[in-house]
Amino acid sequence: MKSIRLAIVMILLFGLGYPALMTGIAQALFPHQANGSIVYSDENKAVGSKLIGQSFQDPRYFHGRISSINYDSAALGLPNYAPSNEEMIQRTEQAAEEWLKKNTGKTKEEIPLDLITNSGSRLDPHISPDAAFFQVPAVAKATGLSEEQLKKLVNKHTEGRMLGIFGELRVNVLKLNMELQKLME
Length: 185
Description:
The chain has 7 helices and 5 strands; from the N terminus they run H-H-E-E-H-H-E-H-H-E-E-H. It is mainly alpha-helical. The protein has 2 domains: 1-35; 37-184, no CATH class. The strands form 2 sheets. The protein has a 3-stranded antiparallel β-sheet. Strands 1-2 form a two-stranded antiparallel ribbon. Helix 5 (129-143) runs antiparallel to helix 6. The longest helix has 28 residues, at 2-29. The termini are far apart.
């Protein structure tokens, strides 16, 4: 009987009480992050999360990393393939060929690696500045905007290293495309 009471107390304390307390603290101190870091348009409409990559198929927009799960977060946990895996090699070759079709005059060696490989999470919302600059000529052609305008836009949206030392320079594709949309209007 004591063990049943102890189990019930632990379930109430750690199964309900602790999660409710942590949720309350998170909502009080970090409401934006606790609610998914949602990005809103000027019309106050939710357009996505700045933490999860999205698929942009329109040639007028910058494209993020490829996703072997089509940006479906429910499919997380699938295996990451080694560089020697045949399926990985074929997918990477196919992605490179698709980029070369969209970016005539470029060679396979010029394609930034992050455009033809997926990230570990398969949902990375960022690309490298090199990957964004690689896309500038194609986006300029599709939108009619100058390459100089687009390069300034990429530079504006290039985020630095965390605390100045951790990680790499990166560009959030959703935020970049939201501002690009404003320039096209």
